[in-house]
Design brief:
By secondary structure, the protein is α/β, with parallel strands linked by helices. It contains 16 helices and 15 strands. The strands form 5 sheets. A 5-stranded parallel β-sheet has the order 5-4-3-10-11, sandwiched between helices. The chain starts with 14 loop residues before the first strand and ends with a strand.
Length: 494
């Protein structure tokens, strides 16, 4: 592992905002230099929307930042392919089974289809694949084992065919949301289940679900059935990461119910504090500040963006330009503005690469084989060092990606820094930003494309901007992206 953060011997402390404490805290691993992180994954009953993908970009940023600071990251993510009912309150149908019935397809086959689509989307966004991917249906054994421990410790009861968690036995229930039991709302719990001792209790194991003929069932000490959704993440993370680990992530919507219930289950079983740091990403909302929802049918997928000629990495760029704890408003205007900014970033990188083309191979080889040498030979004792400090310090301050990205732009615009130094440092920055700038290239034009650019230049000179815009759009349809600069029109190909 390369410690990109301590070339100068002045490695800063990493601060992360812990939802549990409500403040930024210094990241201190529980064990050696490890950073074990469990990230709530998709329920694979449909395509993920861009609101979901913002959260996975956040997870990726967190992992890359920790690796940048030389922590040994073990990244686990679940695949929920059973037990996630329509309501977090154990009401409604299993989302996956409902979709399978509607489509007339096998449940597992449908789950694997959407799981594959999910990883295809994340690959397009340069999101690193987790070290551990745990499917719920393949880990029923550890869920049953954890439920047994919960029951043995006196936190569970059987009622009307289902095994419930007794919330009133867990005196600090709701501590993540910092709400007492008498104030805690039941999330989507509209109908009070008469089988529960308390309306806040939730199902650990279903033998009689709230609907009939559940397709996937397993034998258990409580009868044939299936697990509740909340137990899945608690059990699988303990199985693979240990009874105590460093980080658990999710969206802010997971705080009041899902993560609250996970904590109650895990700590009732293990008898001690569970996860040290809880990190949550804010929503991506539509321009009318409406949260995307599959149930509402108002969601946008990555494929929708691609169909609209928006590059996937444009979306990554837009997400990194907003702090993960800030609500991100998505609109046609913002996405096209983000695309232009990303293209500007890409153009600057390509131009720099062209200016030091004869040294590119050596710079990249040194980066791969000896980053410390790269820093010493190209970056140290140059004006680029201040950009390095700015970038590094931003990351250490609760993953401040907007400032880090601005530091990268400032580097690229700094005329006092040589092109080879810019590229060397940009490669180090890209370990976190994740754009794979080594793949950026201008490409070549055919005669038709050259002629269209020439026609557009003439239209611009004649101030016929309508025609110029029409030609720009034609070229865009052909995969040619134009950038108007002070030195003239430049291009690169998708």
């Amino acid at each position: 592992m390369t410690d990109f953060s301590s070339f100068d011997g002045k490695k800063p402390e990493v601060h992360l905002y812990n939802t549990m404490s409500g403040k930024k805290e210094i990241f201190e691993p529980l064990e050696d230099n490890k950073a074990r992180m469990y990230c709530c994954g998709p329920t694979v009953y449909n395509y993920v929307h861009i609101g979901n993908l913002r959260k996975y970009i956040f997870d990726d940023l967190l992992r890359r930042v920790l690796e940048f600071f030389n922590y040994k990251v073990i990244h686990q993510m679940n695949i929920t392919d059973i037990g996630h009912l329509e309501s977090d309150a154990d009401e409604g149908e299993d989302k996956l089974e409902k979709e399978a019935k509607k489509k007339g397809e096998d449940v597992i086959s449908l789950a694997r289809f959407y799981e594959k689509a999910f990883f295809e989307d994340t690959a397009k966004l340069n999101i690193l694949k987790p070290n551990i991917i745990s499917r719920a249906t393949e880990n029923i054994d550890c869920m049953i084992d954890l439920i047994k421990r919960i029951e043995k410790n006196g936190y569970a009861y059987m009622s009307n065919g289902n095994l419930y968690f007794d919330v009133m036995k867990k005196k600090d229930y709701g501590k993540l949301a910092r709400l007492s039991l008498d104030k805690l709302k039941a999330g989507a719990r509209i109908d009070i289940d008469s089988s529960k001792k308390s309306p806040y209790d939730f199902v650990l194991w279903f033998t009689k679900s709230k609907f009939t003929n559940h397709i996937l069932n397993w034998d258990s000490p409580w009868g044939e059935g299936f697990p509740g959704w909340h137990i899945e993440c608690a059990a699988m993370s303990i199985k693979y990461l240990g009874e105590q680990y460093e980080i658990h992530t999710g969206g802010i919507d997971h705080i009041p119910v899902h993560h609250t219930n996970e904590i109650a289950e895990a700590e009732a079983a293990i008898g001690k504090s569970w996860v040290k740091y809880w990190l949550h990403s804010e929503f991506l909302v539509l321009d009318k500040e409406e949260k995307m929802s599959k149930s509402k049918g108002n969601f946008i997928t990555l494929s929708n963006l691609i169909e609209d000629k928006i590059e996937p990495l444009t979306f990554r760029f837009i997400c990194l330009n907003a702090h993960y704890r800030k609500k991100m408003i998505f609109s046609t205007q913002s996405v096209h503005g983000g695309q232009n900014s990303y293209w500007g970033f890409k153009e600057k990188i390509i131009t720099i690469k062209e200016m030091c083309a004869d040294r590119i191979e050596m710079i990249e080889k040194t980066y791969r084989e000896d980053p410390e040498k790269l820093y010493a030979e190209y970056i140290a004792n140059t004006n680029a060092v201040n950009h390095y400090y700015s970038f590094r310090n931003a990351l250490a301050d609760d993953l401040n990606s907007p400032i880090a990205l601005a530091s990268a732009f400032n580097l690229l615009k700094d005329n006092s820094v040589k092109s080879e130094t810019k590229y060397a440092l940009a490669l180090i920055f890209d370990a976190v930003l994740g754009f794979e700038i080594n793949r950026f290239e201008r490409g070549s034009l055919n005669e038709e494309q050259k002629n269209l650019i020439e026609m557009r230049d003439k239209a611009r000179a004649a101030k016929d901007f309508l025609k110029a815009d029409e030609i720009r759009q034609i070229l865009l349809e052909k995969g040619v992206i134009l950038q108007d600069t002070e030195s003239g029109t430049r291009f690169f190909k998708e």
